[in-house]
Structures are given as C-alpha cells and as structure tokens.
Amino acid sequence: MKKWLAPLLACLVLGLMVAGCGDDDDSGDSGSDAATTEQTATTEQGGGADSGGAAAGEPVAVDIVDIDYEPKDVTVAKGETITWTNTGDLPHTVTKDDGPGPDFTSETLSNGDTFEETFGTVGTIGYVCKIHPQQTGTITVE
Q1: Mean pLDDT of the chain, nearest integer
Q2: 110: left (phi > 0), else alpha (psi -120 to 50), else beta?
Q3: Helix (H) or strand (E) segment spanning residue 139
C-alpha cells in the first residue's frame, strides 16, 4: 500500500505544478490585456493630437491607391486638415486645380509618403495628380 502512496503523491504534486503553470498563462493573457490597453492609449493619444488641430470631428484621411483618391470626394469643416497617404506602388501628387483659398501642391509621393493640408476657406476645391491628370478629387469645405 505504501508503494502506491509515493507515486500518487508525486502525481498530485506534479498536477499542482502544471496547474500553477496554467495560472502563469492566465497572467500572460493579462499581458495581452496590457498590450491592448497600451494600443488603445496610443490610439487615443494620436486621435487627441489630430483632433486638437481640427475644428471639429475626426481627422480626414485620403488614400492614394492605383490611380485613384479614396475617397474621391471629401467634406471637411473649415480649419480641418486632410492627410493623403500613398498606399500604392505608383508615384503621385496632390495639387489644387481650382476653387477658393490658397494654392497647394505636394512633392511627388512614393509608397508610404503622406501630405497634409489644412483648409480655412469655405467652398469647393478641385484637386488633381500632376502625374496622372485623370486622377481627380473634390474637397468641400463647410
């Protein structure tokens, strides 16, 4: 009978150790929660900084994909900033074509490059890519 007791106790101790390791995994999940919290805090900081420069609402983003602005037509409040990001493989520009307010033009944007412009004059502004003249967009400033 004593021969069975030692292996049984050893198995119980081993089982408790494995269960203890499982608890460590749970604290690892806790680490995932911490990472999520960190990501949320970073997002909130970024949003706060961007929102501080804008008159109202969230910052406006336009992607440049292939030979198109997405979205092609955007509406912003007076004082808001638009950020264009080239997410495609071709080079592009963002250049005012017509409308109120000062002229603007970006340098040639490669993949990953961004260009920002803040709009302080109410009206409708047309813009174009100087490299691809068929690539156009419209900004309505309210």
Answers
A1: 74
A2: beta
A3: strand 136-141
Quote the DSSP letter at residue 110: -
47 and 72 in a single domain? The answer is no
Q: Look at the chain and report how many structural domains it folds into.
A: 2
pTM recorded for the entire structure: 0.60
Expressed as residue numbers, the domain containing 21 is 1-53
- Does 25 share its domain with 83? no
Pair (86, 125) in one structural domain: yes
> For 131, which DSSP code?
S
Structure tokens at 134: 């068929």
Quick check: 50 and 76 in contact, CB under 8 A? no
Query: Are 29 and 87 part of one and the same domain?
Result: no
pLDDT in tens, 6-31: 554 454 444 544 444 444 444 444 44
Maximal CA-CA distance, the chain: 96
What is the separation, in whole angstroms, between the first and last Cα of the chain?
Answer: 88
CATH code for position 137: 2.60.40.420
74-127 pLDDT, tens digit each: 999 999 999 999 999 999 999 999 999 999 999 999 999 999 999 999 999 999
